[in-house]
Amino acid sequence: MATNLKGKIIRVSGPVVEATGISVAMSDIVRVGTEELMGEVIKIEENSFIIQVYENTTGVRPGEPVVNTHLPLSVELGPGLLSSIYDGIQRPLEILEKEMGYFIKRGVNADGISHSKKWDFKATVKKGAVLEEGAIIGEVKEFDFTHKVMLPNRVSGKIAEIKSGSFTVTDIVGKLEDGTELKMSHFQPVRVARNFKTKLAPAEPLTTGQRVYDVFFPVAKGGVAALPGPFGAGKTVTQQAIAKWSDADIVIYVGCGERGNEMTEVLTDFPKLIDPKTGKALMERTVLIANTSNMPVAAREASIYVGITIAEYYRDQGLHVALMADSTSRWAEAMREISSRLEEMPGEEGYPAYLSTRLANFYERAGLVTTLNGEQGSITAIGAVSPAGGDFSEPVTQNTLRVAKCFWALDAKLAEKRHYWSINWLNSYSLYHESLREYFKKTADVNWEFKVKELMNILQEEDALMEIVQLVGSDSLPESQQITLEVAKIIREHLLQQNAFHEVDRFCPLEKSNDLIDLVFLFRDSAIKALEAGVPAKDILETKGQYEIATVKLELDYKKVLGKTQKAITSEMDELIKRYK
Amino acid sequence: MAVKIEYKTISRVAGPLVFVKKTHPVGYGELVELKINGEQKFGQVLETAEDNVVVQLFEGTSGIDKDVTVKFLDEPLTLKLDDSIQGRILTGIGKPLDNGPALVGAKTEIGGAAINPFSRGLPNNFIQTGISSIDLMTTLVRGQKLPIFSGSGLSHNDLALQIARQAKVVGDDSEFLVIFAAMGITNEDALKFQRSFEESGAIKNAVLFINKADDPSVERLVTPRMALTAAEYFAFEKGKHVLVIMTDMTNYCESLREIGAAREEIPGRRGYPGYMYTDLAELYERAGMIKGKPGSVTQIPILTMPGDDKTHPIPDLTGYITEGQVQLGRELHRKNIYPSIDVLPSLSRLMGLGTGKGKTREDHKKVADQVFALYAEGKDLRGLVAIVGEEALSDRDKRKLNFAKIFEDRFLQQGLDENRSFQDTIDLAWELLSTIPREELVKIDNKLKDIYYVESKSKK
Fold first, then answer.
1. Is a pLDDT exceeding 90 seen at residue B76?
2. Which of A502, A538, B143, B354 has the highest CB neighbour number within 10 Å of its CB?
């Protein structure tokens, strides 16, 4: 085709460039200007077309050439993705550093995965096998994972030849009868979802090791959670904690328009941290996409799609993937910025009218599926939202809530009190309790559902009582309600609160959560017993046993101190009862 | 290309914008020179099309008519940089303000490229500001951007100057080079800053960029970029530790809105442009360190929250980019407490990296958490006390109420020249904590309490 024909730039306004002179299709990737900056066609007019450029356009002038690659924005998929760190368009930042130094300059292309590294490819199908799209043709060891090499979407046929051995990702490892060459890597357009067989209803939680999420607002593997909160409420720390401690097989972390130093922190932390499930470095199961807030805005828009496409690729290998998007608001703002430069008619708060469609399309790419090759894999999407002024009624939060079944509402008031995780237990919700009920019953406790409801009731009662307390003080409440307030306080301090930076408390297995819950109930039951035996509430509130729960929480081998703590709580109450007999 | 064509083809002037018809291709972001009766004015290309260009002037458009000569300089806006800039006082666009010679040195583009996140060094050196509330509760770390959220009439400028005077890294002799970017400040404030630097001799170790309130507002968009370009030069080429103070970011954002309106852009929240987040990020993200390089850029931007409203777009977007914030409170200010830092909404995100064993002290983080919690609860109780009186409180609550009071009077409050060492700060914190029974300090491990808790006082 007319690939070597050159178009011409006629207008430059920031990341938006107008050009003319060649034929283009929507979403084609084009090379812009003498420096061949990467851009994507986003609008076609009668005599010209509009490109969003993924790099800084300073110095680009009208009259410079534009070349069409005739390919949509794609990522390169294959072994070598894990432990990589990319910019928003899958250029490895490590290679960019080699090519252009410490600062991001422009006009550099880099392969998404190494084309020179050799992998041991083991073919798992034989000559003559008739294969559908997505079928597994071989395996490669990528860190601890068995990376499955699959036929790309829309490629199927009879294997004419295939061989095992040591290859690079671009070497030809086999052929189909129709002549299609088979390699370990392939390109996948990012703006369309990868194919799968069927979607399934999720039935297992993504265990995060964070009590408030696991106990009160669990998200399913294959679910979608929205994490909105004003700045400083702990969105990023939450995302990072889940990336670190959740029981996902693979974590894709998209830092979309966020802070550079934070990405550095992840880069420094993750290689050192050990995955509690596999005992391997966390980095080996992670792909990082870092398009910080000062990097080009169009690449920020693309980064979310790059992330979810890589997630889908690992899902298709039968793995459970957790995708963190921090923050989807920056993504929406990138859309708004491009839209406004196109002079499109704005919707609510200046966001384009297609905001809700884009958000829904993105989140719908999460889910538990039967893959084309018959395995089960999932993507759990956790999207941070940064609402302007912390106001949840703004469009990004509201449109996200339409598709997310978990609402983790972060609260600035709680954060100010250093109540972390600062998620508001009254406003937040999870719609997965129902589908996860059987799982918790089997794995945690037969009474799990009942216990969680009971805890929530106490917290709700506390909220109602606090209104009275604000007016008259807690002393004037009936004694039983004073005990309820105390129990609620213990729930808040020892169950809801968790210290992400404490070497033990940062990860709390489900079993430990369950034991802590039982301690709370033990305190409540013995307090009520004491009260009924005539002990004044004032004395019950002064008991010290409850503080021992903190010790349990902060102890690695907590089972050792569990018995002591139970005893501390009950014996103190028993003594009180004796004294008032 | 070398021939610089001059045009006399201005078609329209609107606010700070000039629309020029032209024939040769002009690059996006290029510098533009205008000549009016021998006087030069500079501007920058905001949009370039085949036959016309939109230019944003830095120094206002008054006096510009359609016959003014326009020259495209084929280069972006630059600052001339070498070591001789140290000690200078300059205007917001880098012209001498101190009767010194014009700048010499290499022309450096002021736009600033993004640091590759992979190349960043992890900020982890504690900066001792000598201010207890910052050092203990919102610890500043080398390479961090930690803004001061203030309100009009509060003491942010005194605080900034005090930090500039006192900041040091314990166990590291290298002094901070202070780069000061003032945007839209009054002549009076400008004089005060200038004098403060000159009298203390700190000017030797500083560079001042001053854009006054009556200077053209567009110039304000350039000032912080000039300052940060100088900062990057000293940090990453000369290996110095640089502290950049930018005041007042609110004026900067107002200018941004002014330009946006003149360009007839679709406004975002409260009329500020939709790209304000990106624009601010381009400034704030220039703080940091680079792996394997000795220098660092630490930023303290100052902004006054219109109507003390933290949800206003300026503090809001800033907070989403910066690594925490130090917020000043009007209530504390009224109580005559200086610095009137309201620690509850204040936060340092990098605190964990710069604190702890080997950096400050093993108990730092936990003591800070505990003090926060107690102060927050104590402050909450004040509301209750106003209604039911102090007698209605339990003993436990009375202790918390008292804690809040002594925290403000003894810990927050300090003199303009009082430079507290970290050791003094944390010892003071333990002294206050020891008014609370040991087992109620649930945020601190027993191990640490064994070492630091001052038993005798609580027994009383």
1. no
2. B143
Place of tokens 């979403």: A27
Of B50, B265, B384, the CB nearest to A473: B384
Quote the pLDDT of residue A514. 96
ipTM for the predicted complex comes to: 0.87
Peptide bond into B11 cis (omega under 30): no
| Token pair in block for residue A452 | 């969680």
**DSSP H helical segments within B222-275, as ranges?**
223-232, 249-262
Contact B383, B400 (CB under 8 A): no
C-alpha distances out from residue B48 to A2, A214, B85, B328, Å: 28, 54, 34, 43
Alpha carbons A237 and A341: distance in angstroms, whole number: 33
> How confident is the model at residue B3, as a pLDDT?
59
Tell me which amino acid residue B345 is: P
Q: Which of A335, A398, A344 is nearest to B275 (CA)?
A: A335
Q: How far is CA B126 from CA A291, B158, B266, B387, in A?
A: 27, 22, 43, 43
Q: What is the C-alpha to C-alpha distance for residues B260 and B254, in angstroms, rounded to an integer? A: 10
Confidence of residue B5 (pLDDT cuts 50, 70, 90): confident
Give the whole-number percent of chain A exceeding pLDDT 90.
78
Task: Kindly indicate the confidence band of residue A464, based on its pLDDT and cuts at 50, 70 and 90.
Answer: very high
Give the Cα separation of A42 and A32 in Å (integer). Answer: 14
Q: Judge contact between B399 and B421, C-beta under 8 A.
A: no
The nearest CA of chain A is from the CA of B185 a distance in Å of: 26
At A400, is the secondary structure helix, strand, or coil? helix
Rounded (to 5) percent helix, strand, coil in chain B: 40, 25, 35
Average pLDDT over all residues of chain B? 91
Question: Which DSSP helix (H) or strand (E) runs through A287?
Answer: strand A286-291
Q: Does the beta-carbon distance from A541 to B394 stay under 8 Å?
A: yes
Listed by number, the residues of chain B in 359-378 with a beta carbon closer than 8 Å to a beta carbon of chain A are 365, 369, 372-373, 376-377
Q: Find out whether A400 and A353 touch, Cβ atoms under 8 Å.
A: no
Could you tell me the two tokens for B261? 């309106």
* Cβ proximity of A255 and A265 under 8 Å: no
- Number of other CB atoms surrounding residue A538 within 10 Å: 12
The beta-strand segments (E) located in B260-418 are 288-290, 296-304, 324-327, 347-348
The DSSP element (H or E) to which A238 belongs, if any, is: helix A235-245
**Signed CA dihedral, A329, A423, B352, A304: sign only:** negative
Q: Do A61 and B372 touch (CB under 8 A)?
A: no
Distance CA B210, CA B93 (A): 9
B204 in contact with A, Cβ within 8 Å: no
In chain B, the N- to C-terminal Cα span, in Å, equals: 85
Q: How many CA atoms lie within 13 A of A417 on its CB side?
A: 18
**Residue B459: what pLDDT?**
44
Q: How far apart are CA B365 and CA B444, in angstroms?
A: 9
Residue A47: is it exposed, middle or buried by C-beta count within 10 angstroms (0-12/13-18/19+)?
exposed
Copy the structure tokens of residue B2.
């070398």
B248 preceded by cis ω (within 30°)?
Answer: yes
CB B126 within 8 A of CB B365: no
Q: Structural domains in chain A?
A: 6-72 (2.40.30.20), 77-101+112-189 (2.40.50.100), 198-429 (3.40.50.300), 448-579 (1.10.1140.10)
Q: Which two tokens stand for residue A219?
A: 């998200």
Interface test with A, best of B277, B291, B375 (most A CBs within 10 A): B277
Question: Structure tokens of B408?
Answer: 């403000």
pLDDT of residue B143: 95
Residues B385-407: what's their mean pLDDT? 90
Per-residue pLDDT at B456? 60
A-chain residues near B344 (CB < 8 A): 416-417
